[in-house]
Queue: 3 jobs
Job 1
Amino acid sequence: MNADRGTLERLGDVALAVVIGAIAVSVAAFDQDTTPVDQALIVAGSLALAAYRKAPRAVLAVTTAALSVHVLHAQPGPLAALPVVVAVHTAAQAGHRAVGAAAGAVFLGAYLAAGPVSQGGVERTALLAGWFLCAVVSGLAGRNWQAYLRQTEQRALEAERTREEAALRRAGEERLRIARELHDSLTHSISIVKLQAGVAVHLARKRGEEIPPALLAIQEAGGEAMRELRATLDVLRTDEPTGTPALLVERARAAGLAVDLTVTGRERPLDATVDRAAYRIVQEALTNAARHAGSAKVAVQLEYGEGELTICVDDDGTAEPSRPPAAGIGLTGMRERVTALGGSLQAAPRAEGGFSVRVGLPLEHA
């Protein structure tokens, strides 16, 4: 789908350049001073617009230079500025408003110098200045609108992710509630039945009586029910991550994120609670880096100390100390995990740019 969209965008850019060129060439054809060289300059400056998405400043330079030479040579009417106006608009939309304004000023200077200074010439130049001003303003408005659309889409994705996380959390809480109810009710009742059946079998054997088959069946069924119930409770209580931080790093690399993993100290098996918290912290930090840091590089470091596991996840993205991000569900959940284990958490933009997450988890916790 992305490939189809890119193809459509390129075809649209070529169509725009062809239409602008056709208009400019058609207008110039009625001017007796237009030569084949002028036609070539108009075509070159117009067709360059097809590449404005990839190189807006280069397109602006080519179009402005070609059309400035044309107006100096042929002294055409104001419509000759159309390709330059479009190039200034696209440059401003790409964020190069100063360059666009400078290119407009260069073309206006060439247009004003092309003929003798007269009231009509000054008025046409002022009209073109208004066109260029509108091109810069509309380019900035288009850029702001695109930024707004991207921000809206990002908020929608964040809201969807938050809803999914809340649903998963509620599902986990419900599983734990069901597990507690089953444990408190069924486990107690089945244990009593199994115990009573065992006592009856023991007394019958002690008195030398024949043990009723129904009693043996009750005892066997009670034991089997207890085993099945324990297995069910284990499933309900289990919300364990499957994998390691190294596997998370491999998955992130496969998804296109540039991640390096460094492990220092004596690596060893961890307590299940600490291991689960470390997994979730690295997972959340990599998820945030993939969502907010763009094409940044990420460094994951695990340091196994004598009494503490230190986790550092740093990226060189666009986060700045002057604009700290709002704590979302991910960072809040990360802090709750660390606090529950008596650890420490620092999550903030780095002074040199990017975001840093530093966590210390005690290996011996209450």
Job 2
Amino acid sequence: MDAPHPGPVADSLDRRIISALQIDGRASWHRVATALGEPERTVVRRGTRLLDSGLVRIGAMAVRGRSTVLAVRCAPGRARVVATALARRPDCVFAHVLTGTWDCVAEMQCPRDRLPGLVMDELPGLPGIVRTLTLPVLRHVRTIREWHAGLLTEAEITALADGTPATAAPGSADLLPPVDGAGELSRADRLLVNALAEDGRCTYDELARVCGVSEATARRRLGALRRGGRVRIRAVIEPALLGLPVEAVLWVRAVPAAVGTVTAALAESPHVRYASFVTGERQLLALTAFPDEAALHDFLTRSAWLREAVSVDVSMVLGSLKRGGMLAPRLRS
């Protein structure tokens, strides 16, 4: 029997359906039901309710280049304004307002040859920015697609991921684009991505009509874009819906010889939503979510990987302006 769960997410089945959509936001309800071992009618009813309510949003994100994490210090009272400006950029993946040394953190995507212009020209032009820290991502350890909050078994994850046309193998992190400057998308592909950005589960028939191509062509083009890592389908949720309202950003510095051990431990934790190996003094950046502050405290004082860490700086997330390439609902109106 499920324990009572506050809010509009009713029970563990709702949360497991959400986790399934995080693996493949375009998975059919039949495939989700089969993987979870639940009646299809029940999965259809619950999944449709979650999507119609806006609690779970499915969207597409075009990969625009290599990932770079930006930490920003803002003038007093300007953190929300700066974070909003970053979030509204089409090359922004996520943007969060923080406590601590840095007022906000964002991940941007741009080809390496455009990074100098971004750092030296575009960002200084945003009102309210006092200082920035630029951390190119060398490797994604975990992204939203790999985070299931510990709600699915390995067999369920494999069953769902097997039908996903993606470059990454089941259970592995999203690959970085193989090269910068892979070329602009065609007009039809841009229309396809724009349609999916609004509704990641729109049918191939709807995509075909928007793009002015046949349904078979729309299906083939989307499959090719996903396999090539040019487009990623994301299920975006607030962690609070899964009973994890306390979010924190961890900046981890590890003993160089033990970075692999720490990385593996973070990737295995159900509390780590996102983790990247970055340049700079601290090699690892992790976005985490917990049921309460006590659980966060335990994670930061009792985890085995802490023996290999030189330092761990913690910033609490005060607000999220963008997740998984999708603006917060209040910014979309």
Job 3
Amino acid sequence: MRGRVAGALLAVLVVAGCASGEEAPGTDTKARAVADRVEPLADTPEPRLPVTVRSADGHDVTVEDAERIVPLSGSLSEIVFTLGLGDRVVARDITATFAQAEKLPVVTRNHDVSAESVLSLKPDLVLAEATTGPAEAMGQIRDAGIPVLVVDPAQGLDDVGPRIEAVARALGVPAAGKELTKRSEDRIAAVSQDVPKKTDAPRVAFLYLRGSASVYLIGGKGSGATSLLEAAGAVDAGAESGLKKDFTAITTEALAQAAPDAILVMSKGLESVGGIDGLVKIPGVAQTPAGMDRRVVSVEDGVLLNYGPRTDAVLKSIVGQLYGDKK
């Protein structure tokens, strides 16, 4: 998750918890189009260490070894595994939901890091986001002498390469980082070429939903979805309508101003409100063009806004759901 957006979403998740269980009525199974696995590079790189790298929090971090790695976000876990070093990962954050990581011990609770859990695994390196916390736990890990690399947050497609390469440098595999960056960027470009050119750009509103906590938000400027929607040939309806905050509580007026032709949601969020049938019961949704047409694009929570090695698959899923047989 990205920067201050992550702060807003994580605060919601602490209250709401992560929805789970059977798929709700009306949930579009196309959300499953993004396979919940990562695709490692063909050749497994061998780390050349030690290295000293600059952390996003302003510290120089020296990595002496990378036999036991703890990435504290799903996005960072995804990068390590896709670089081909997943066998060195000894724990995961709750948001690392892809298949190769699912059996690893979880060292977070409601997105808060447990310093005791991390330290008990004797890691050589901890990878963290700018929003990883609480600060006290991260301080305990640093005080124990564990190198902690903070990676700049992702806000859009332009951040895919820099994040991959930052992690690769810290792991002593910079060449693999460049290879994965090129593969990722080439695949994103290929999907973008498949966007229909003869249709008007659809207006898409990104809604963040947690029905169990009655949390209904519409994304605005800085939500993290704008870059992805534009790559899919769409307009971010919330940002374009003038919403300045990352996320704003959904109101009938805000939805009317955004006037989306389609709605983008995370799949668990959609399930939490009872699928599409429940979504259109949220005040104002049924009156939008998207609500009247029941035009909903749903992608798995754990990958939608990661901006990493699987972003091409996310974009392909969005394009496929958005245009269907118009492609």
